[in-house]
Amino acid sequence: MDIDWGWIGDHTDTLTDHALIHLRLALLPVLFGLLISLPLGVLCRRWGWLYPPVLTASNILYAIPSLALFMVFIQYTGLEPATVMIPLTLYSLSVLVPNVVDGLASVSEPVRQAATAMGFGTLRRLLRVELPIAVPIVIAGVRVAAVSSISLVAIGQLVGQGGLGYDIIRGYQLQFQTQIIAASVLIIVLALVTDAVLVIVQRLLTPWARARGRAS
Amino acid sequence: MTGVAAPDEDVNRLITFEGVTKRYPDGTVALDDVSLECPTGQITVFVGTSGGGKTTALRTINRMVEPTGGRVLIDGQDVRERKPAELRRGIGYVIQHAGLFPHRTIEDNIATVPYLLRWNKKKARDTARQLMERVGLDAGMAKRYPFQLSGGQQQRVGVARALAADPPIMLMDEPFSAVDPVVRAELQDEFLRLQDELHKTIVFVTHDIDEAIKLGDRIAVFRTGGELVQVAAPEDLLAHPADDFVAGFVGQNRGIRSLSFADTAELSLRDDLVRPVTAAPADTAGLDWVLVVDEARHPLGWVRGPEVTGPLADAALAPVGGTFQVGADSVRGALDAAVLSPAGLAVGVDGGGAVVGVTGGAELLAVPTHGEHHRRPGKEHPVDTAGADSASAVRDGASD
Amino acid sequence: MNDLWNQIDLSWSWLTASAQWHGEDGIPHRLVQHLYYSGVSLLFAALIGLALGLLVGHTGRGGFLAISVANIARAIPTFGLVLFVVVIEYSIVPVLIALVALAVPPILVNTYEGLRGVDPEAKDAARGMGMSEWGVLWRAEVPMALPLILLGLRTSAIQVVATATIAAYPGFGGLGRYIIDGLARNDYQLVVGGTVLVVALAVIVQLIFAALRRIVVSPGLLGTARSS
């Protein structure tokens, strides 16, 4: 394969622009997904009957091809960022809700009861005890959701909103390998950096897990 | 079918440790030059503090751990001469949480080793059913799965599974530690009953000295660092701990515990305090306490001599308290009965419940706790004196 | 909402039109193509993912490396990979490679986690009773890890079925053909019809795995294992 380094040098500005758009298109949905899945997960824990239908719904959502989901929304939102971001938010929900529920379920009953016995109210116990303990599992979900989202955005170019997906399709139409490679590699780099940042965030949020990891 | 002896095969199943050492690459010593024998047909208990190497020692027998020095022999043959898998199929193995296979039914769990030995399915399952009965499990549980059983029941399955191919040797690593005290006592009793029938060579690991004393024919005490401190019969261990470590480990009340090994047949019982209910009131006048019995000499209760004013049948009797069966219960049981009695005297009865006599206080403590009468009441030792003798010759007392 | 019903109605008439059920562009032909791409990719992904997952999970060595590689693989933009390799060599193979790359991580990660989650005491007992390493793997670890292994296969299968639509972009057909064509012609009836077919296929995959779970997973595990 021949890489035209000159072309890359000439297009750093546009590639950077596309990368930033790409990141925004990919990560805002994950953020929205997290903001929705936290309360939804808490509710599913509180009312057990809610979880099976939510799980089924998210499984079905997950089965819809991203391209098709973009198409469905294009009629309502047009060639706008929302057309890509709403489906990506839905996808992230299908990963995040189960992880939030599993994370909250990982809080052992003695810990929960000890917190109650020490006088924590329901909300305070949730914020100070249960959610911190759930962090590792929730972040594991966020990592999968973020990396998949970054990879999926490229397909959004077919509905006119793809960030680096533009360069992939353009390169394909022009049969210009360099542009496809540059965009693909940038997408992988974005995903790896995002993943690394999330790992660091988790370490900062859960210093106890780090200490335990070292001890074992 | 090598590795599985026919049940009636007349072989010794003697396990010998010869200077066995296990040193891990990081320098930790789990076993330090351990030598001992686990006699045929007896229960040898490995006991000690955590990190004492007792589990490691057990696991060298079926090659789950390979020693870095010394050797382990079964009937004089180095275990390293046998392939691990083949060796293990001939040795029963029971562990703390039973380690049952959650995906297999109870009967298939029990038949694991028969399947490995390629028995036909019917024979394997028939054996499994028989063993379920033997360990006290209802046959209706055969098709259930482990998660449907209580901890105690799972542990019984674990024992049955280890017995399935009728191995002459059983290794048991804290098999009863994870269940509650009541169930544990029950499992221990049934385990002893089973051993009376089967006479397996058993190596049993526990951290609980009471369990060791209850179950062990011989007890090997391990100390942190993998050092074998003392090997002795339970009563000898209690009477003559080799050093402060063992003394501390067997605990402060080892004196009381050693009474478990004293036979009540040795007690001299007083008959002069026993009165039939028909006796004349004047007969009791000079006595502090009197035990009133019925026509069949079954105890009715205690009464203070001076308080008797009418016929004994009308007297207000204090409860008997406890009784002990002469010759069957240990002196510890008699002491227990004495403490519970309002008169401070233990009532000795025969097998039919008829009073033989009463005893108390200094009398109880005057009985020798070891020597020729060290056989524990209620527990039969196998008639294998040769094995027992050779065992005591191996290593008694401290290494330092 | 009226819009939506209208659409469903249109898609229904599209799906049921007899023209859709014959010829090169008919649903049966596209469905077979789609199933072929999905099946072949899943087969190879399962071979790679299971082999690596079982190896790493059983030995316990290289777990961190395998999981890291699997996570990086998730980051590969399938779309970019497909189009890039197609530019180099116009054939279906690059599409299949991209789908395999997509499907391996969930299988690998779930197999590894499944084996790691097996009760260590059960494994110890298996060895202690004289099972060979091979026996421990097949008689103890795999049956106990089966719920998670199936979950991984299911996740991959659904992703592959949904993503195989991409094959249509460089012109390899499959059910994605309808979606791509519909987009190009502004024919939403075609887009929704194609989507319905893909989703139906994914639902069938879900059902197959649910049935499989019931058949091959021991009832002894379903009592305790997390349902999914």
TrEMBL record, chain A:
InterPro entries: ABC_transp_perm/SBD, MetI-like, MetI-like_sf. Keywords: Membrane, Transmembrane, Transmembrane helix, Transport. Residues 19-198 form the ABC transmembrane type-1 domain. One of its GO terms (cellular component) is plasma membrane. The chain crosses the membrane at residues 20-42, 54-76, 82-101, 133-160, 180-205. PANTHER family: GLYCINE BETAINE/L-PROLINE TRANSPORT SYSTEM PERMEASE PROTEIN PROW (PTHR30177), OSMOPROTECTANT IMPORT PERMEASE PROTEIN OSMW (PTHR30177:SF4). It is found in: Cell membrane; Membrane. Coiled coil: none annotated. Pfam families: BPD_transp_1 (PF00528). The keyword Membrane applies. It comes from the Bacteria. It is a multi-pass membrane protein. This is ABC transporter permease subunit. One of its GO terms (biological process) is transmembrane transport. Belongs to the binding-protein-dependent transport system permease family. The keyword Flavoprotein does not apply.
Automatic annotation (TrEMBL), chain C:
InterPro entries: ABC_transp_perm/SBD, MetI-like, MetI-like_sf. Keywords: Membrane, Transmembrane, Transmembrane helix, Transport. It is found in: Cell membrane; Membrane. It comes from Actinomadura litoris. It is a multi-pass membrane protein. The chain crosses the membrane at residues 35-57, 78-104, 144-169, 190-212. It comes from the Bacteria. GO terms for cellular component: plasma membrane. The keyword Lipid metabolism does not apply. This is ABC transporter permease subunit. Residues 31-209 form the ABC transmembrane type-1 domain.
